[in-house]
Amino acid sequence: MKEQAAIQTSVANIQQKRGILITGLLVAMLFGALDGTIVGTALPRIVGELGGLSMMAWLTTAYMLTSTTIVPIAGKLADLFGRKSIYISGLAIFIIGSALCGMADTMTQLIIFRAIQGIGAGL
What we know:
The protein has helices spanning 2-50, 56-81, 83-102, 107-122. With 123 residues, it is mostly helical.
């Protein structure tokens, strides 16, 4: 009887953790989807207001370069420090990078902040 109760408790804990995991993954996918759709749609207007048409390619390049480069590093860090802490820090860096992008006054600042956002996306 005690073994059966312990198994039921264990199954309930696993189901609860699975729900939290799926919620976290959905939040990350939402941020990624919002980033791609919003930036892609608003990019011409942003570049027009900041006056940096010659640096427009760097906006996407900085993001893609940093996010691609950080993925293997994030894997090693996740092995060392745990996946949960790296995942949460990645979300935090991504959100901070997004806020900084919204406050950028020049194209150079925006490119740097997109790179920071890319680091968060890679994590």
